[in-house]
């Protein structure tokens, strides 16, 4: 009986192994829907030359409101390049911001358009908008027919210099940011600087936080450039804005490609420096805070924490605070002091959320020096609270000085 049982449970294992190279262009241009600019048509033709490519477009209503003529320009462009572009329906306008990511009915709405228009795996889906729209459209493209070619057209500073050039897609669910999502590289990304010109000042400022973040963890030279050009960036001077966007995008792309974990299977996520607090702040404020605004606060918080725990030289926190302030960020929000029914600070739940999202041990990136990130596996509650009080004191002392 024992031998028979052993035979019954004898197993064999075959290991399946293959690798797929991922490659997609990230282009920087100006006025992409001018017929004199062939970039979009040429990008579509990278798939197959000499044919007409079916295309459906989802566009952020905020972009349309800022550029009412854009819908007509898109259709004129498609008509001009009609031998290469088959725009199967008028561009579909979708809600702007986190509202789109927080209601799955919008995902179903986009999937229904794809179904009704018979968009297949040889067609294209294009998203034109900020990070929220690109996240949602990317999820739709990745899950419809198990993956449809997806072209991202980021229209905000934050999307052009960070989220739009990466490989993540997702929407919010169960009160958690990006709970439902995929890792799926786009077919192409086109950054059109013209979109930046029509952004509200608040959105221009918000997007700069990710440039400061990636400079702090990866490129001290870029950080020095940000400091030197902070006044120009505060005035949104075009040359400074374009350099900031392009260099930040390059650094994010380099980290994704060379950091050893492009699909985040491990627990180390240096590009999320400052984000454990930022994500929680967004939730607590019901997204009243823009993502970049919350990230700026998270950066300032974790930079001071890095000083308190002896990683970062003293004075570096004030230096970073000064840069973020010059760029236009307000680095304090009352939500930092919000408490739950048990008297615990809500912001601390961000650490638990972060660990659960990673699925492993808590791993937080702090600063060892300007331009050098350092991973830790524990955050001291008292030092976090001390960092919050530091932010509060600086905020109110600046307010008194300004008055």
User: Which structural class is indicated by helix and strand composition?
Assistant: alpha/beta
Write the CATH fold name of the largest domain.
Dehydroquinate synthase-like, alpha domain
Report low-confidence residues grouped into runs of 5 or more.
none
**Count of folded domains:** 2
Largest β sheet strand count, sense and barrel closure:
7 strands, parallel
The radius of gyration is: 23 Å
What layout of secondary structure does this protein have?
Layout: H1 2-8, E1 26-29, H2 39-44, E2 53-60, H3 61-66, H4 70-80, E3 85-87, E4 92-94, H5 98-101, H6 104-116, E5 124-129, H7 131-143, E6 149-154, H8 157-161, E7 168-173, E8 176-183, E9 188-192, H9 194-197, H10 201-218, H11 220-228, H12 230-234, H13 238-258, H14 275-284, H15 291-308, H16 316-327, H17 349-358, E10 364-369, E11 372-376, H18 381-402
Parallel strand pairs: 1-9, 2-3, 2-4, 2-5, 5-6, 6-9
Antiparallel strand pairs: 7-8, 10-11
What is shown here, in short?
The protein is of the alpha/beta class and 403 residues long. The protein has 18 helices and eleven strands.
């Amino acid at each position: 009986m024992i031998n028979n049982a052993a035979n019954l449970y004898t197993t064999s294992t075959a290991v399946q192994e293959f690798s797929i190279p991922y490659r997609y262009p990230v282009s920087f241009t100006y006025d992409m829907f001018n017929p004199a600019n062939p970039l979009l048509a040429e990008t579509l033709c990278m798939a197959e030359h000499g044919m007409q490519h079916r295309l459906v477009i989802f566009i952020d209503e905020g972009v349309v409101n800022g550029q009412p003529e854009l819908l007509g320009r898109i259709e004129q462009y498609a008509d001009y390049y009609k031998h290469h572009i088959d725009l199967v329906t008028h561009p579909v306008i979708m809600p702007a911001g986190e509202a789109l990511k927080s209601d799955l009915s919008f995902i179903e709405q986009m999937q229904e358009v794809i179904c009704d228009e018979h968009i297949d795996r040889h067609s294209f889906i294009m998203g034109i908008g900020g990070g929220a729209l690109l996240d949602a459209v990317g999820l739709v493209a990745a899950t419809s027919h198990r993956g449809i070619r997806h072209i991202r057209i980021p229209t905000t500073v934050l999307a052009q210099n960070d989220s739009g050039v990466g490989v993540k897609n997702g929407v919010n669910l169960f009160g958690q940011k990006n709970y439902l999502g995929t890792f799926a590289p786009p077919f192409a990304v086109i950054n059109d600087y013209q979109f930046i010109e029509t952004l509200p000042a608040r959105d221009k400022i918000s997007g700069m936080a990710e440039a400061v973040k990636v400079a702090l963890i990866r490129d001290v030279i870029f950080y020095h450039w940000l400091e030197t050009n902070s006044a120009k960036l505060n005035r949104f001077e075009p040359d400074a804005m374009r350099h900031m966007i392009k260099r930040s995008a390059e650094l994010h792309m380099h980290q994704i490609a060379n950091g050893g974990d492009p699909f985040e299977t491990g627990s180390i996520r240096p590009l999320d420096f400052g984000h454990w607090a930022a994500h929680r702040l967004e939730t607590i404020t019901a997204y009243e805070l823009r993502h970049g605004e919350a990230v700026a606060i998270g950066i300032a918080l974790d930079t001071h924490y890095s000083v308190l725990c002896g990683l970062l030289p003293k004075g570096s926190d004030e230096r970073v605070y000064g840069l973020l302030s010059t760029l236009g960020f307000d680095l304090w929000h009352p939500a930092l002091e919000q408490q739950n029914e048990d008297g615990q600070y809500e912001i601390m739940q961000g650490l638990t959320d972060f660990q659960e999202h990673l699925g492993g041990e808590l791993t937080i990136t702090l600063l060892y020096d300007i331009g050098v990130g350092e991973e830790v596996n524990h955050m001291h509650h008292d030092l976090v609270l001390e960092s919050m009080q530091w932010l509060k004191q600086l905020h109110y002392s600046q307010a008194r000085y300004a008055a």
